[in-house]
Design brief:
Blueprint lengths: L5 E10 L5 E5 L2 E14 L4 E4 L3 E8 L4 E11 L4 E11 L4 E9 L13 E8 L2 E8 L1
Antiparallel strand pairs: 1-3, 1-10, 2-3, 3-4, 3-5, 4-6, 5-6, 6-7, 7-8, 8-9, 9-10
Length: 135
């Protein structure tokens, strides 16, 4: 059986730069990027990203940036969906992938909690764009 990716939504995050804080660690620099807000839209859901979300990224000594993001999506009909994702950004190789996980008590969107998703990221002038797929 092959994977048949299905677009869940396109996501835009408005990210403050430079990093809000930088903390050296024994495995690289921890960089905190604050998300001011954003939008998402797909075939089955759309809405906004609530401000105040954070990426606790780690710029490793191996040249990779490891993402560790927590965000809250609010759908146009008022439902709240928590999303967490980890991922890897290899800037020289132009490779940026994440593995989002969703949680919500909103019945119309509970299907999100029962799937595996992959995000493909791209840097844009105001932050980050992702295409998020169900696999």
């Amino acid at each position: 059986m092959s994977l048949q990716p299905e677009l869940l939504f396109n996501l835009h995050l408005d990210v403050e730069t430079p990093a809000a804080a930088v903390c050296p660690t024994d495995v690289g620099e921890r960089k905190l990027f604050i998300v001011r807000g954003g939008t998402f839209e797909g075939p089955k859901l759309k809405g906004t990203v609530l401000p105040g979300c954070v990426d606790w990224g780690l710029a490793g000594s191996d040249g990779l940036f490891r993402l560790d993001v927590r965000a809250v999506l609010q759908t146009d009909d008022g439902a709240l969906i928590a999303v967490t994702y980890r991922g890897i950004r290899d800037i020289p190789a132009d490779y940026w992938r994440t593995t989002p996980e969703f949680s919500t008590t909103s019945e119309p969107y509970r299907w999100l909690t029962r799937l595996v998703a992959v995000g493909v990221g791209t840097k844009v002038p105001t932050g980050v764009d992702y295409q998020v797929y169900r696999v």
